[in-house]
Design goal:
single chain; about 90 residues; mainly alpha; 5 helices; Transposase_17_sf; Transposase
């Protein structure tokens, strides 16, 4: 705030603000699931999506109470969803 006031500017100083885009097409949803759950693997943080403790991946695979998985699983079914999210599709 100090810097922005001093130089008569507004907004984020270092990086742009986070932007979100709604997913309105089902065909984009499945690749997005894969992307989200593969991020920690691709970053080298874990070897498999289920090893990342901050992910909802385990909720989808084993069930749980924190994440509403009904819509995602209704698109593919649990087995197909696991293959998609674990990147078995390539």
């Amino acid at each position: 705030m100090y810097f922005n006031k001093k130089y008569e500017r507004s907004g984020a100083l270092i990086a742009s603000r986070y932007k979100s885009t709604p997913v309105e097409i089902d065909e984009y949803f499945i690749p997005l699931i894969r992307y989200i759950h593969q991020n920690p693997v691709k970053a080298g943080i874990v070897g498999k999506p289920e090893e990342y403790k901050f992910s909802s991946y385990r909720e989808y695979v084993r069930g749980g109470k924190l994440t509403d998985t009904e819509f995602s699983l209704s698109l593919l079914g649990r087995d197909e969803w696991v293959r998609a999210a674990s990147n078995e599709y390539g």
